[in-house]
Structure formats: structure tokens, C-alpha cells
Amino acid sequence: MRAEDLEALREHMLAVIAANAFALRDTIGKTAFDERVMMAMRKVPRHDFVPIELQPYAYANIPLPIGFEKTISQPFIVALMTDLLDIKADDSVIEIGTGLGYQAAILAQLARKVYSVEIIEEPGQQAKQRLRQQGCSNVELKIADGYHGWSEHAPFDKVIVTAAPDLLPPPLIHQLKAGGKMVIPAGLPNAQQLILAEKLANGRMTTKEILPVRFSQLEGTGSG
């Protein structure tokens, strides 16, 4: 596809995200996502993070298959999860479930450092290559079971999980800084909710259900 066609599709994607954010204003408590989040969504070429045959659909507001029985989330959900994290420029963020690296590339625009964990070798290696091509030098990636987080780089300011456990994984709660936020889909396969969890200064967690979602299940030791 020609660059100008992709550019037009990307602008349309941003308009759809903005409209959906406005529709969800009562839930998220504001009428629009943070401008830094929207700039990151504009800047990162989503078509470079999907299989080549799906590039024409890269900017549609739908999840797309990326192989390995995995999907790349719809753009609105990526923007919503990113916005809920409220990432600051000096934050250290861990992502569980790299896929082909699109969400990590968005995070890389906003945070000081992004640690991303992918359980399947092949997409993880592809993600490394794609992120390198985009110049995302502040992303460190490893192939491992993300349920356990990445303890040597903990604690993290923010945690984002792109696959759904039944319950919040204790290792990820443990690795979140006091005052930090976690965005995670959780629940049984047909009853998942996107959850914003915050760790208070005393270490206690508060959770807020944002909206029903459908994510693939979080693989690894923690899944039932």
C-alpha cells in the first residue's frame, strides 16, 4: 500500500479512537485521551507490526490475528490501556505479552524504559526485530513466562498485561511500586473485565473495572 493511503487510514483510526474515548467518558472520567498517548498512536506505524497480508487492515478498529493463536488488540483498546496507565516520562514499565511488539512501541514513546516479556519464542524474536527497525532502543525484551514478571528490574512504576489471567498474578502485584498502576484484563474466558489496579502507599491494592473485554488467556504457571 502507498504511504499516503496508510497515512489516511491512520488519521481515520485516530478519529475512531477519539470518538470511542468520548463515548466512554463517564467510565474514564474525561472526554479525551491524553495528548501524549494520541501522539504515540499517530507516530507508531501499526502496519509494521502485523503480518504483511493484513497490512491493509492494520488501522481498522478490530483485533487482528498475528499467528501463534494470538491477536494484536484493536487500536482503541491499546490507546485505552495506555491512557489508563498515565505513563510519565521517567517511568519504568513492564509489559506482559509482547506479541509482535506494537504495544511495546507505543509504550516506548512515553516511558523511560520498557521491559517486555513474551512466552513464545518466534513472535518474541520478530518483535525484537520490528522494534529495532522502529528505533525503540529503550525496550528490553525477553522470552519467558510473564506470569512471574521480571524481578531483577523490579519494582516497576507501571504494569500492563495483554493476556488475561483468572486473577491478578501475585508476582506482578509484588513487583509494582507503591503508587504504581497496573492495567490488566482478568476473569474467566467469557467474563473478562479490563481492570485498573493501583497500589496504595501501604501496599494495598484497589481495583476498578473499566469495561468487558476479550483477550487470549495468559499462558504459564499461573493459568488454571
Could you walk me through the main structural features you see in this protein, from its secondary elements to its overall organization?
The chain is 33% helix and 25% strand. It has one domain: Vaccinia Virus protein VP39 (Rossmann fold, 3-Layer(aba) Sandwich). The chain has 7 helices and 9 strands. With 224 residues, it is α/β, with parallel strands linked by helices. The protein has a 7-stranded mixed β-sheet with strand order 5-4-3-6-7-8-9. Strands 1-2 form a two-stranded antiparallel sheet. Helix 1 crosses helix 4 (75-85). Strand 6 (156-161), helix 7 and strand 7 form a beta-alpha-beta unit. Catalyzes the methyl esterification of L-isoaspartyl residues in peptides and proteins that result from spontaneous decomposition of normal L-aspartyl and L-asparaginyl residues. It plays a role in the repair and/or degradation of damaged proteins. It is found in: Cytoplasm.
Mean pLDDT comes to 94
**H/E series, N to C?**
HHHEEHEHEHEEHEEE
Q: Could you list the spans in which at least 5 consecutive residues all have pLDDT below 50?
A: none
Total number of beta strands: 9
Looking at the structure, the CATH topology is Rossmann fold
Q: Give me the CATH architecture, please.
A: 3-Layer(aba) Sandwich
Number of domains: 1
CATH fourth-tier homologous superfamily: Vaccinia Virus protein VP39
Under the CATH scheme, which class? Alpha Beta
Shape: globular
Largest sheet: 7 strands, mixed
Q: Treating each run of at least 4 consecutive H or I residues as one helix, how many helices?
A: 7
Give the structural class: alpha/beta
Distance between the termini: 43 Å
Proportion of β residues? 15-25%
Q: How are strands sequenced across the largest beta sheet? A: 5-4-3-6-7-8-9
Whole-angstrom Rg: 16 Å
Helix content: 25-40%
Keywords: Cytoplasm, Methyltransferase, S-adenosyl-L-methionine, Transferase
Function: Catalyzes the methyl esterification of L-isoaspartyl residues in peptides and proteins that result from spontaneous decomposition of normal L-aspartyl and L-asparaginyl residues. It plays a role in the repair and/or degradation of damaged proteins.
GO molecular function: protein-L-isoaspartate (D-aspartate) O-methyltransferase activity
Subcellular location: Cytoplasm
